[in-house]
Design a protein that fits this description.
The chain is built from 11 helices and 12 strands. By secondary structure, the chain is an alpha/beta fold. It folds into 2 domains: 218 residues, P-loop containing nucleotide triphosphate hydrolases (Rossmann fold, 3-Layer(aba) Sandwich), CATH 3.40.50; 49 residues. The strands form 3 sheets. It has a 6-stranded mixed sheet, with helices on both faces. A 3-stranded antiparallel sheet has the order 2-1-4, covered by helices on one side. The N terminus is likely disordered. Bound molecules: adenosine-5'-triphosphate. Keywords: ATP-binding, Nucleotide-binding, Transport. InterPro entries: AAA+_ATPase (IPR003593), ABC_transporter-like_ATP-bd (IPR003439), ABC_transporter-like_CS (IPR017871), ABC_Transporter_VariousFunc (IPR051782), P-loop_NTPase (IPR027417). This is Cu-processing system ATP-binding protein. GO terms for molecular function: ATP binding.
Length: 299
């Protein structure tokens, strides 16, 4: 255990945290723990409380109730500069000065963060910004180049905790792919990564855990497998016939073998038709997200 990890081995501990603005709750009684090397996706509608929770974990605001520990300390305390130096943040929209070059921009942020700029070339290489691009003014950058620069800014100082708010908005599929490759490398190297996104389908396969927020509350938290088993949503089975037609049936996950048997038997009885393909479609993250929101609304 290092001094940057709490006694539970977690890098982030959020306990019973609420944040009120006037009478309105932006965040309500949230508990959340994250471990080193864990990538968590936080999803929720506009206004669900995701950014408010990130601001609390960054120490930019303080909880109305509850306690937050990041890397073993209170991120909002005056003495937390050593914590903040180990935390990276990629905000939803980053506005760099258009007349500064990529290099000048990263040097500026390195100075703000109090980390040496000697590692900046390696950072540019890591995020895929070519040396020629680094010398250009940011005003001439494409959206993808700006986002790469924004990621380089978030990676300054080799953060142990990284918050990424809607990191892939506006990026083409190839860039998204390379972005998630970088995130995977960071996670494998032990960085705790929290990813906020509306692009739910894209998050499948990227995150170890999914946290669903709704109206300031955490309404679900678990791996996709755990959320699937909690939601108990039906799976879809698609059977392709020799003539190319598709028969679709739904059933509980535990019942899929019996359901295929029932469906093929029914066809046999009708004249012995072979099945050329079977596809089992698990509920998507979108389906589960909708389920947990419906359940929360009904409570
Ligand atoms: N500084 C503030 N003053 C007053 N209300 C606020 C403030 N910050 C957030 N809120 C309110 O708290 C709620 C949660 O907002 P928040 O920005 O955290 O949601 P979000 O999930 O990040 O949404 P989005 O996906 O649109 O970014 C909203 O109702 C918002 O209006």
């Amino acid at each position: 255990m290092t001094d940057t990890v709490t006694s539970h081995g977690a890098t982030i501990v959020v306990e019973g945290v609420s944040k009120q603005y006037g009478d309105a709750f932006a965040v309500r009684a949230v508990d959340l723990t994250m471990a080193p090397g864990e990538c968590v996706a936080m999803v929720g509608h506009n206004g669900a409380g995701k950014s408010s929770l990130i601001k609390l974990m960054l120490g930019l605001t303080t909880p109305t109730e509850g306690r937050i520990r990041v890397l073993g300390g209170d991120p909002a305390s005056a003495a937390a500069s050593h914590i903040r130096r180990q935390v990276g943040f990629l905000p939803e929209s980053v506005a760099f000065h258009p007349s500064m070059t990529g290099r000048e921009t990263l040097d500026f942020y390195a100075k703000l963060k109090g980390v040496p700029r000697t590692g900046n070339d390696a950072l540019f290489e890591r995020v895929g910004l070519e040396p020629a691009a680094v010398k250009r003014r940011v005003g001439t950058y494409s959206k993808g180049m700006r986002q790469r620069l924004a990621l380089a800014q978030a990676l300054l100082g080799g953060p142990k905790v990284l918050f990424l708010d809607e990191p892939t908005t506006g990026l083409d599929p190839a860039l998204r792919q390379s972005f998630y490759e970088i995130v995977r490398d960071l996670r494998d190297a032990g960085t705790t990564v929290l990813l906020c996104s509306h692009a739910l389908t894209e998050l499948e396969g990227q995150a170890d855990r999914v946290v669903v927020m709704s109206r300031g509350r955490k309404v679900a938290d678990g791996s996709l497998a755990t959320l699937r088993s909690l939601a108990q949503l039906p799976i879809r089975i698609r059977l392709t016939m020799p003539d190319g037609s598709v028969i679709e049936t739904t059933c509980a996950n535990d019942d899929k073998v019996a359901a295929v048997r029932r469906a093929t038997c029914a066809m046999d009885c009708k004249g012995g038709v072979d099945v050329t393909d079977i596809e089992i479609v698990q509920p998507s993250l979108d389906d589960m997200y909708a389920h947990f929101l419906r359940r929360e609304a009904a409570e």
